[in-house]
Amino acid sequence: MNNHKSKNEERRCTEPISFPCSANFCAGAFPDWLEVNLLKHCNAKCEWCIEKNGFHPEFNAPWHVIADKAISFGAENVILLGGEPTLYIKLPDIIARLNEAGRKVWLTTNGSKLTKCFAESKLHGVYGVNISVHHYCMQKNRVITGLDIKVSELAPAIDYLIDNGVKVRLNCNCISGMIDTEKEIERYIKFARLLGVNSVRFAELKHADESFVNIPEVMGFKYGLTNAPFTDGCSKNTVIDGVDINFRTMCGLQTDTRVKPINSVQVQKHVLYYDGKIYDGWQTNKEEITVNDAELLKLMDDVAKGKIPPAEAAVKIAREGMGKKKVKIVKVKKPKPVSVGCHY
To answer: Which of 69, 78, 302, 313 is deepest in the core (most CB within 10 A)?
Structure first.
């Protein structure tokens, strides 16, 4: 067995550790937050959705278990995500329980259910609402998301939320062929002004290189934007046309269009899933092969423990026909961390 390290391993051991900008999510700049994956279902059809291969627990905990788990975690800010959280039947109950415990409740939605009536009846007590609308033209937003959103219904809902002290932000992912130039960003900001929202976030896509739009280049590297967000800061705030703007850029850990940091050190974040468990980071599915046969499993275990030589085990399997008829191969999906401090 070759014990020598590969050149890549030697390089990683000898090169200095790279630390993120202190203002980055992965540096722990927002420690008083808990993200909640409230449900897996979403009514949108975004091709680049980062939850397509996300981990989806089989067990659904009761709403009060999720709420109490979030409260016991101790973070002041709790943001409800999904899936699409407005589809969650017990949404008003969770918001109320978190409010009673003194938590600030935030919600990120695709806006498909957001009418004034819905806001009045379902979102009482929410502290902030982020609405993901990826184009100022609703026809193009429908192409992106598959959702039919009417500004005539969305605008009164935003007015109601703003009038009741709720912070409202529009989230726009910059997508090639859609919002992909400075002029298009300026047009989107005018749209946001008409809706009267508090702020807008423009974000680069994560793990979607074909549709990726390089925001720093599009904006001419203004507002402190650079192509090294890991070290220079991935979240930049400014004001454009009287609207508070946040630019969210992706480093090489989320997109192959930028150099991946070597030996990066990141702060682990926690995510509460709808099974009532808190995980280290957002999870993705990891498929493992499991053999469903007690006799064969015992034989494999004996080989692993050195009780039976591999050659003898092979002869036994061949003679007894083991693994031909009785063995059932099962693919088991298990969660594994997919990100640490970074998520949308």
So the answer is: 78
Give the total number of structural domains in the chain.
Answer: 2
pTM (2 decimals)? 0.82
* 311 and 228 part of one domain: no
- Of 233, 249, 284, the last residue of a domain is 284
Domain housing 311: 293-327
Domain co-membership, 306 together with 211: no
My answer on whether 160 and 179 are in the same domain is yes
The pLDDT averaged over each successive group of 10 residues in the chain (344 residues) is: 47 65 88 94 90 86 97 97 96 98 98 98 98 98 97 98 98 98 98 98 94 98 97 96 97 92 83 94 66 65 75 70 49 56 58
Same domain, 163 and 68: yes
189 and 119 share a domain?
Answer: yes
Q: Is 137 found in the same domain as 42?
A: yes
What's the confidence (pLDDT) of residue 115? 98
Shared-domain flag, residues 118 and 244 = yes
Does one domain contain both 280 and 301?
no
- pLDDT at res. 281: 86
